[in-house]
Amino acid sequence: MDVSVNPAVCGRWCVKYLAGALLMSSVAFGVGSASDAELPAVELQVKSTYLYNLPKFVRWPEPVLENSDNKLTICVIGHEDMRDYLYKLDDRQLPKNQLKVSYRNLDASLLGCHMVYFGVDKHLDIGSKLEWCHRNHVLTIGDQPGFVESGGIIGFSLIDERVRLVISRSATRASGLQISAKLLELAQVVD
Question: In the β-sheet with 154-159, what is the strand arrangement from edge to edge?
Answer without folding.
Answer: 98-103, 71-77, 115-118, 139-142, 154-159, 162-168, 188-190
